[in-house]
Amino acid sequence: MSSKKLEQLLIDCIQENKESVYRLAFSYVKNQQDALDIVQESIRKSFTSVSALKNETVIKSWFFRIVVNTSLDFLRKNKRIQLVDDETMEMISPGTEDQYANLDLEKAMEELPNKYRVIVILRFFEDMKIEEISAVLNEKISTVKTRLYKALRLLKEQLSDEELEEVQ
């Protein structure tokens, strides 16, 4: 496939998934500006290496993998975990609706280790199949399934513990 066609496919992929890749980056860094920087850096990296892509059918998972790796690189370089600031929280939440029902889930998700949180986000918030997640994270399908199961179990335990605390 020609370089121009690959670049056009990449542009289409980026445009179709811009909100998803932003949310994915944000899930790692918890900061609007850093997430935007990660997305921008991921786009730069993808354009510099798009010609090496052998199979255009995997362009989406290939691009998501670049976003994941760029997010992890950012965290390694900065060695810090960002808390969500009020301004960012206002921008990502709808604002007009009460979100009390989601607060416990958000808190429980934040407490999950990155290797579990990213799988839950990709599976349930980005609606990816297990095989796609496997390709994005460059992990075996069995590893993804195991981590997803463990993440869901941890979330269930955290959420049921919080319900018990509310009753007492």
TrEMBL record:
RNA polymerase sigma-70 region domain location: 14-80
Keywords: Sigma factor, Transcription, Transcription regulation
Stored CDD domains: Sigma70_r4
MF-aspect GO terms: DNA binding; sigma factor activity
GO biological process, one term: DNA-templated transcription initiation
Domain RNA polymerase sigma factor 70 region 4 type span(s) in chain numbering: 104-155
S-adenosyl-L-methionine found in the keyword field: no
InterPro entries: RNA_pol_sigma-70-like (IPR039425), RNA_pol_sigma-70_dom (IPR014284), RNA_pol_sigma70_r2 (IPR007627), RNA_pol_sigma70_r4_t2 (IPR013249), RNA_pol_sigma_r2 (IPR013325), RNA_pol_sigma_r3/r4-like (IPR013324), WH-like_DNA-bd_sf (IPR036388)
Family according to the record: Belongs to the sigma-70 factor family. ECF subfamily.
Name used for this protein in its record: RNA polymerase sigma (SigV) subunit
